[in-house]
Design goal:
This protein has about 200 residues and is an alpha/beta fold. It has a single domain, classed as Rossmann fold (3-Layer(aba) Sandwich). The protein is about 35% helix and about 20% strand. The chain has six helices and six strands, in the order E-H-E-H-E-H-H-H-E-H-E-E. Strands 3-2-4-1-5-6 form a six-stranded mixed beta sheet, with helices on both faces.
Length: about 200
């Protein structure tokens, strides 16, 4: 049985901090992001399985790890970025003027992006996936390359922090958060371990 799940956020890309990319197609790592993921490969426990969100930046990140460990990458739709609906690809500057954006960030539990996925729906899908992994046979860790929001949603769940406390957990690019798995369930052993600057 697996004993460790490592949640890895994808590396840096050029739109980070400027635009709400979400499921916007074609977003890819920049040189910094590629370097970060190479350093990340040296930080993580040797995996038996590498899974990735379907988004390009996550698949690129997972591929760098997979090359390092000579493993294939499995696509896990459950690890996909949250669906931001109509907000996908908007700049953060534009979103600041949207009252719905302010409500979403004030109370994630009771709001959702227009035409998108709620934080609770996201949390349910990622936690369901993690719980299903508990029973698989694997000689080593499972690495899941995903995005800030799915990783944060999982960490909130296992920390027993309400969704509205989402800002209490940081998930940096190329960071690793580690879950320990045993007969009693899943618990957090490390959050947001970052690659060297």
């Amino acid at each position: 049985m697996i004993t460790t799940i490592q949640l890895v956020r994808h590396g840096h890309h050029g739109l980070l901090g400027d635009r709400l990319c979400g499921r916007m197609p074609g977003v890819q790592l920049d040189d910094l992001g590629c370097r970060q993921m190479s350093l990340c490969a040296e930080m993580i426990e040797r995996p038996a399985v590498i899974q990735s969100s379907p988004q390009r930046r996550a698949q690129q990140s997972a591929s760098i790890l997979a090359w390092h460990f000579s493993l294939p990458v499995e696509i896990a739709p459950e690890a996909d970025e949250i669906d931001y609906g109509d907000w996908t690809s908007c700049t953060f500057a534009d979103l600041e003027g949207d009252a719905r954006w302010r409500r979403w960030n004030a109370q994630r539990s009771a709001n959702r992006p227009p035409g998108g996925e709620s934080m609770l729906e996201l949390q349910r899908r990622i936690v369901r996936h993690l719980e299903q992994l508990r029973g698989i046979q694997a000689d080593g860790a499972i690495v899941i390359v995903s995005h800030a929001e799915p990783i944060r949603a999982a960490l909130l769940h296992y920390s027993r922090i309400p969704l509205d406390g989402f800002l209490s957990i940081d998930v940096a690019p190329a960071s690793v958060s580690t879950l320990t798995v045993d007969e009693s369930g899943i618990r957090i052993s490390r959050i947001n371990q970052q690659v060297p600057a």
